[in-house]
Amino acid sequence: MGGVTTWRRRGLHGHGHGQGTWRRRGRGTVTGRLALVLVTLASAAGCLTGPEPEAVLRVMVPNTAGSGYDVTGRTLVVSLREAGITDAEAFNLTGGSGTVALSRLLHERGNDRLVLLMGLGLVGSAQATPEAPGVGDAEPLARLVEEPEALIVPTDSPLDSVETLLAGWEAGEVTTGIGSHVGGPDHLAWREAVRAAGLAPEAGRNARYDGGGALLGALLSGEVDAIMTGLSEYRHALAAGELRVLAVTGAERVPGVDAPTFRELGYAWEFVNWRGLLAPPGLTDGQREGLLDALDALHESETWRAALRENGWRDAYLTGEPFVRFLHEEASRRAADNDRP
């Protein structure tokens, strides 16, 4: 496709042309000679057109359309294309809180044209599902972005502060919603926020929805009174004035969002979600470096920097051994947190 450059690190071998078999119908017949001429011309034409175009890079999103993973995955492929780095596309494969997609990735051994969009949620779901494969069974590529969670209500909600919301939740008058599975970022952020307020996570009513689209519908229809979720999934609804943010979970305020941090409000607590990429196991050094070259180029592009600003993401780019260590540390932190009462 025009305007798309393929990035490959040195050492990555190109794709060879496959050779088919051709059987003559009769020795020395006109049909046989004609077929031979046609095959020869076709082979020559293939050589004249240059090397076979590299296959599209497919980004697998492990949950539903409209979720934080989905927004990140689709922003990633658009940025790769617009920056002229490689052709890419995203597709959703749901199930098992992300572990179905992880299993698919692990069965694509040696395929450097498939990557999995993942993050804190997949680390948590793999830990919470004993029979599921582990994140460590895949090839770590990169951490891409960080994003705080936010406590959000409809614009016309009577809940005007975190304190008011928590008091109503503890009294059984307020229902909160989350758009992730148990162990996912929304669930972890809400549970830790409640603990920071000195309350038990089971003290009030919570409802879980499959992804950000369903969660937004539940909030606007009144099924739930407030939601804990990532900001990027709701930037359009916020811009339209349909929603109001009570507080964000990061260490700093989010530019363009008129809301304090939980720490500013007196809660000694911070929380950020993150997202990154895994590749199938069994890649050659050249295949792995080719993918990392593409991600390096993306990270340095103005296209990606604009995407970070638009979605309120923080650049958290990390590759190689530092990313491997980060994954181990994150898994240990979440395992310890899950053991808390």
TrEMBL record:
Bias (Basic residues) occurs at: 7-25
SUPFAM superfamilies xref list: Periplasmic binding protein-like II
Region annotation (Disordered) maps to 1-25
The family line of this record is: Belongs to the UPF0065 (bug) family.
User: Mind telling me what this protein is named?
Assistant: Tripartite tricarboxylate transporter substrate binding protein
Organism, as annotated: Streptomyces sedi
